[in-house]
Amino acid sequence: MKQNCISIVVVVFNIPTELPRTLLSLATPYQQGVTTNDYEVIVVDNGSSPAVSESLIREYGPNFRVLRIDDASPSPAAAVNRGIREAKGDKIGVMIDGARIVTPGFVRFAGIGLDMAPTAVVAAPGWYLGSDIQANAPTNGYTKAIEDSLLQSIRWPEDGYRLFEVGTMDESSIDPWFSPLAEANALFLNRENWHAINGMDERFNHPGGGLVNLDTLERAMALPQAQLILTLGEATFHQLHGGISTNAPLEQQSKNWAIWKAERDALRGAGDFIFHIPSAFVGSLPPALVPHLARAMIATPHGVGPAVAAGLRAQLKPPEEPVPTHPAAAALVGVAKAQFEIGNYNAAADIVRMASSHAPAELAGSRLLASAGILSRRSPDRDAAYFTAIGDAHRVVGENETAEVQYRNALAQAANSTGAHIGLASMRMSGPFYYDWLERLYAELKPAVVVEIGVYDGVSLSKVKAPTLAIGIDPNPRATVALSAQTHIFPETSDAFFDRGGAGALLAGRPVGVGFIDGLHTFDQVLRDFANLERYCDAGSVLLVHDTAALDEATQKVPPTTQFHTGDVWKLVPALKAMRPELDVFTIATPWTGLTVISGFGSGGYDRSWIIEAGRRFANMEFAEIEANFGEALCLVANEWEPVFARLKANLGGKGRGQPQSKFLQPADCEAEEATMGGFLHQYFLNNSGKEIYKWLHYFDIYERHFERFRNRKPVVVEVGVYKGGSLEMWRAYFGEGARIVGIDIDPACKVHESEQVEVFIGSQDDPELLDRIVEKYGPIDIVVDDGSHMMDHVIATFEHLYQHVQPNGVYLVEDTHTSYWDAYGGGLRRPGSFMEFAKGKLDEINAHHSRGALPANAFTNSTDSICVYDSIVVFEKRPQGKRQTLITGRE
After folding, report:
1. How many beta carbons lie within 10 A of that of residue 149, not counting itself?
2. What distance in Å separates the CA atoms of residue 66 and residue 79, rounded to the nearest whole number?
3. Which residue, 222, 388, 489, 665, is most buried by CB atoms nearer than 10 A?
4. pLDDT for 709-736, tens place per residue?
């Protein structure tokens, strides 16, 4: 052997299947960049039965040898020290667990790492084979046979780096590029440094060594000028073998830790271990490891990753992988992906584990589980969102009893858990959704006119198709979908609409074909809406009322105490049964809370006198009065097409639909023709077919309110955060010819979004030199829109630098300020240093003249006219402020 060679000590105990793989991975030619003269492998058999044979060891090369300890201790510490004493090399590595496969550059880069510093401590991160930690995996069907198949699937050992495709980081090595290392399952020191710490402490005498591995790393790092060098692209991969520590179930691991920690504290004194941050990395980055590193750049178990923290706009997506062939597993993976998308990683991981119990072989190497499992390691708490997601998972595979338990767990933690309420409602009523019913009813009935009370996001109104005329009434409509029929939307209450005769003017004598009531969700309001619509009904009309099958007492209360809320509109059904027996009333059991269908109008003259009596008799009716007789009380019918349409056909029989559609569809000559919803920006967004724009819908009204005066005046608009370039194009279209649009983004790829009138600067939004270059070229600025990193220090730094460069009558808008309440962005409720706390300070500054000297007026005070605070947006309007003065006018 050469001088300065490497000795690797591998301790083994009863691992006859796993040992050959470990040895093969340590041998040439699998190990790259080294020869048999560069290193030796010392296998220390710590009392295996049967003993490890010398002939087996010799198969792997002349640089392999075995030491046998017959009277072995249950702890491997003495075996490690025996190997160190027998080592011939000046550089010695220790693998306390011989059931670990290593990657192909392991030996070479460990040696290079030891040359990087006199007191170098070189460690290789620890991984598991399979997509889950091995304390969990066996309970979900993972076996040695599946592990064998997993290795075959990557054709190991042809390319040892492909182990990263089918492995997951162990608990000690989570994102080791950015997080401290807890222990090293492959630890390299120079010989003199092993001697300096006296090897492993043999007083750690529990089976498996207890916490001797953590203790050894801690003592090595306590050496003078010790530097932790981590192998960048090399690792050890633990094989399933029933080990004392790594393969123990989670409950047993907790018990083990308590025992082992007591042993360690008795030796070293009570206290926590010190985890260690690498000083440097050694090696190269294999392609199979890149997805793991990329994920860690975006998100870690501790929160956002370093790339996002630096301002890069990136969203973590579930890894792409084949869908399991097992139907239940496929359904569960779909639920898990949805939870991963919204950052509910704990639930996503546990749901893939549920899927694994159905298809363990197919999901043994699941990247989804590996990613979700890692991201959930530091957040074991189970909140309402977690229990709701687990409930959803059980529901999709038909385990409704278990699902209900999980939903109730969610509501016990958060009584306003919308997801849990939806889950419970979905189990109670299944089949076609009420949107499907609206679409089928409109298609079958072919109404000339549909009137909808309660537009909300426009999805239900979008079910109306040409040539039907659609009328929508809502005091705050927020349509987010394309509407295909001729549609008039009135942004007002239904009472105001009908009181001013809006329906009569627009209908011009035509009847309402179908009326859909989904408005204020109170009994008194639904009574008025029903009466107002009935005035325009004939024998061929049908009225529909949504949310009449309340889920439970809590969700039907008025005023509402939960977000999932039906109100007490259910009272309309017993009221109509009692007061209007000539009408046909029934409720389709469609998710989530029913759809009541009413027909049989026109048998007598219009008379609304019954409304007062109905209110008197039913307004105080309790939900408990109908719970035991729910179906009969609400006239529930099955959620099936044919019986419903047969019933309607018998009731309507073509009545009231004798006139041709063309007559009904002639536009009325009235002011209603001009009714519109939303301004230019809202319409641009809804009809956008260009580059992607990602905005909250209520932002557009705010933009128009503050930006309208700049249109067609060639403003300079600076937007922080380019994303996919769609908003830059929107601003250019909105502000018109001559406007100069400037984007700022940290991602160099955003440069591609430059065009006529649009320039993109690449860099961090808190870089003063970058901001100064923009001001030098484009200042003064008319409008700033900060939609950048949303990190608190970035947002504040940008404001403090750019606000002074906004022209005296300009606008500075910061959006997505809800991040001020999120820890991941440096925020938190009333947390000092958040942007909202910063903005509250600015409220004091704008009123500084009234502080009686407690707060001196400053440049902000003298240049700011107003601060407008909205949900998720703060707008600063500038205008030079003169001396404040008060006057008294008028007479006594």
Report:
1. 13
2. 12
3. 388
4. 999 999 999 999 999 999 999 999 999 9
**Contact call for residues 97 and 43 (beta carbons, < 8 A):** no
Q: For residue 160, which of 169, 151, 168 has the smallest C-alpha distance?
A: 151
Q: How many CA atoms lie within 13 A of 800 on its CB side?
A: 13
Of all helices (H) and strands (E), which one includes residue 720?
strand 716-720
Sign for the CA dihedral angle at 183, 185, 188, 192 comes to positive
pLDDT at 662 > cutoff 50: no
CB contact burial 294-310 (16+ within 10 A = b; e otherwise):
ebbbbbbbbbbbebbbe
Contacts 24+ apart (CB under 8 A), 19-23: 19/43, 19/52, 19/56, 19/98, 19/99, 20/56, 21/101, 21/151, 21/239, 22/95, 22/98, 22/99, 22/100, 22/101, 22/102, 22/239, 23/56, 23/57, 23/60, 23/64
Structure tokens at 157: 């050992």
Residue 444's CB: how many other CB atoms inside 10 A? 13
pTM above 0.85, yes or no: no
User: Looking at residues 683-709, what average pLDDT do you find?
Assistant: 87
Strand, coil or helix: what is 242?
coil
Query: Are the C-beta atoms of residues 267 and 161 closer than 8 Å to each other?
Result: no
Distance, in Å, from the CA atom of 456 to the CA atom of 517, rounded to the nearest integer, reads 12
What are the pLDDT digits (tens) for 178-225? 999 989 999 999 999 999 999 999 999 999 999 999 999 999 999 999
The amino acid at 237? F
Contacts 24+ apart (CB under 8 A), 147-155: 147/239, 147/240, 147/364, 149/361, 149/364, 150/364, 150/365, 151/21, 153/365
Work out whether the CA dihedral 654, 659, 663, 669 comes out positive or negative: negative
What average pLDDT does range 297-317 have in this prediction? 86
**What would the two tokens of residue 745 be?**
């983004």
- Structure tokens, 602: 């026109």
Cis peptide before 74 (omega within 30 of 0): no
Q: DSSP assignment of 514-540, as one string?
A: EEEE-SS--HHHHHHHHHHHHTT--TT
In a 3-state reduction of DSSP, which class is residue 91? Answer: strand
| CA dihedral sign of residues 772, 777, 781, 784 | negative
Q: What is the share, in percent, of the chain residues with pLDDT greater than 70?
A: 95
Whole-angstrom Cα distance, residue 101 to residue 21? 6
Q: Tell me the average pLDDT across 584-601.
A: 97
What's the rounded mean pLDDT across residues 50-63?
96
Strands (E) across 619-708 are located at 636-637
Neighbours of 463 (CB within 10 A): 25
pLDDT digits (tens, 9 = 90+) for 75-119: 999 999 999 999 999 999 999 999 999 999 999 999 999 999 999
Copy the structure tokens of residue 494. Answer: 């239904």
Report, as residue numbers or ranges, the catalytic residues: 790
pLDDT in tens, 758-808: 999 999 999 999 999 999 999 899 999 999 999 999 999 999 999 999 999
**468 has a pLDDT exceeding 90:** yes
- Cα distances from 772 to residues 159, 506, 776, 802, 860, in angstroms, run 51, 56, 6, 9, 19
| C-alpha span between 79 and 487 (Å, rounded) | 82
Instruction: Quote the tokens at residue 472.
Output: 């929508």
Q: Any idea which of 687-691, 709-713, 762-766, 847-851 has the lowest mean pLDDT?
A: 687-691
How many Å is the maximal CA-CA distance in the chain?
115
Structure tokens belonging to residue 175: 């994102």
Alpha-carbon distance of 274 to 278, in angstroms, equals: 13
